[in-house]
Design brief:
The protein is built from 3 helices and 5 strands; from the N terminus they run E-E-H-E-E-H-E-H. It is globular. It has one domain: 2-Layer Sandwich (Histidine-containing Protein, Chain: A). It has 97 residues and is an alpha+beta fold.
Length: 97
């Protein structure tokens, strides 16, 4: 995990994790992920390879095609960035099955 200041009040935090749910970031897991992301004021993106998607958009998240076992990076910028990254990484890396 990396955390660094951007300006005086903006913080960027990122954490790499492995997708856990059998469905990957599709359907129900994607909807749960986006619902959780929307609870934070920070700007949050999910990065897979060279592609990046807004974590607050189900459609954008699903276009990443992240499958079980894929490595992704969750990056957030804002006052609650650290909490957002921790919560989202824990949510998606936990295998529910």
């Amino acid at each position: 995990m990396r955390c660094f200041a951007v300006g005086e009040e903006r913080f960027v935090t990122e954490r790499e994790t492995t997708v856990g749910p059998q469905e990957g970031l599709h359907a129900r897991p994607a909807a749960q992920f986006v619902k959780a992301a929307k609870q934070f004021s920070s700007d949050i993106v999910v990065v897979k390879g060279e592609r990046e998607a807004n974590a607050k958009s189900s459609l954008k998240i699903m276009t990443l095609g992240a499958k079980k076992g894929d490595n992704i990076t969750i990056r957030a910028k804002g006052a609650d960035a650290q909490e957002a990254v921790d919560v989202l990484a824990d949510l998606i890396s936990a295998d529910e099955h």
